[in-house]
Amino acid sequence: MAKQEDQFKKVVSHAKEYGYVFQSSEIYDGLSAVYDYAQNGVELKKNIREYWWKSMVQMNDNIVGLDAAIFMHPTTWKASGHVDAFNDPLIDNKDSKKRYRADVLIEDYVGKLDAKIEKEVAKAQKRFGDSFDKTQFIATNPRVLGYQEKGAAILKRMGQSLEAENLADVKALIEELEIACPLSGSKNWTDVKQFNLMFGTKLGASADSAMDLYLRPETAQGIFVNFLNVQKTGRMKIPFGIAQTGKAFRNEIVARQFIFRMREFEQMEMQFFVRPGTQKEWYEQWKETRLKWHLSLGLGADNYRFHDHDKLAHYADAAADIEFKFPFGFKELEGIHSRTDFDLKAHETHSGKKIQYFDPELGESYVPYVVETSVGLDRLFLAVFSKALVEEALENGTTRTVLKLPAVLAPTKAAIFPLVKKDGLPEVAKKIVEELKFDFNVLYDEKDAVGKRYRRQDAAGTPFCITVDHQTLTDETVTIRHRDTMEQQRLPIASLRNLIHDEVSLAKWLEKTK
Length: 514
Prior knowledge:
Blueprint: H1 2-17, E1 21-23, E2 35-37, H2 39-58, E3 63-65, H3 75-80, H4 82-85, E4 87-92, E5 99-101, H5 102-128, H6 134-140, H7 142-163, H8 167-176, E6 193-196, E7 200-203, E8 211-214, H9 220-224, H10 227-233, E9 240-249, E10 264-274, H11 279-295, E11 304-308, E12 318-326, E13 329-340, H12 342-351, E14 357-359, E15 364-366, E16 369-376, H13 377-388, E17 389-393, E18 399-403, E19 414-418, H14 425-436, E20 442-444, H15 450-460, E21 464-468, H16 470-475, E22 477-482, E23 488-492, H17 496-504, H18 506-510
Parallel strand pairs: 3-9, 19-20, 19-21
Antiparallel strand pairs: 1-2, 4-5, 4-6, 7-8, 9-10, 10-16, 11-12, 12-13, 13-16, 14-15, 17-18, 21-22, 22-23
Helix pairs in contact: 2-13, 5-7, 5-8, 7-8
């Protein structure tokens, strides 16, 4: 666990040092659980969003986009259930005076069981070497099976208790597991209570006439209330989807783990409308499709797993999370939910408007069922960034810190250097920048020795470094260095655009999702 904490601290520190993420309002001592994306972070975030959008909307004939407003009529949130049921179970430690999410305390306990499983696997792998079969070991080792069985039983009990709103049993489970306050080590807990997560605000010119509103806690409802508008104007036929990215807001009392859990965050969601009775089939298909999309980024298949929900939301008949192995353990990255027809029916009831689809093949009207895919953009940013950050031991005995971002997502695709700041080399390097910047985000760097510049760009995540030297003046060739392998090759300036394009092309990367 200490190793994980050290790695996580390095991630947070590196994100600030290299212009990815800053604490919001830092000069005023910051604002808890609110962050700003810096010059490199905003580019990485934009590239992740674009990679998702193109794969979801541009690559699918039956999925279109939407950008709904953050402010919505307050009845929206009554219909969706958020006013009455959008709560977190909170528990206070009487000695440290700190407040925690009860479910997170229990999930962290199970996470420690997962860490014990990984420790057993690592020991066995070291013992058996190349002949080690990880899958068979996990499926047959008594100690591993015991940890798995215990973790599953804990989560099942918690899920059932939360679903039944049996908060007394949630506290009892915390006490039975002897879970202590992470800060003080005390086990002196209060009762578990529910806390609504929506931010309230007002709309209007004066306090007397202002309407009470909420900042949206999710983006999905903007899609549901626009179902008929999109379906009719786009002449969409079932099955079809509506995708959206945008900000959502939750008053997280226990916000932590950097940008993993924030009060202001961005979602990338798609609601897929299907015939009633086909939702489970589409649910399974979207689970497979979304996992394949994540794997296309090359972060390693071992870092993903599915977690099926024991506790289902009031609107769902099936739900699963794609979990990712963050530095602090496996946590939810994306949710795939079979939402039934709850949302559209609820809005039909509360609005008094008929929200149905006439199916020409069946010759009848019905309220469609919905399969949702919802991924947190900030969490995906953290997943990519944390897994990309590595320290490598080099053959000369030194180490280098390198941010091995997928090239398609890297903020800067290439850095162009003059070997020295004279003899016309800077002019040639700047000319290359001007030629490439129409197609790629590139930069010019002439400060420090070339070796230091390489290390700086490695740490910033730049896939290519291009060096202009005196030979360039005679044959118009340059040296291009590859970040991940540190290999260098000589090639004509005229070939740069094609080489970079082959490595960072969205089309090439999206081929892996098919």
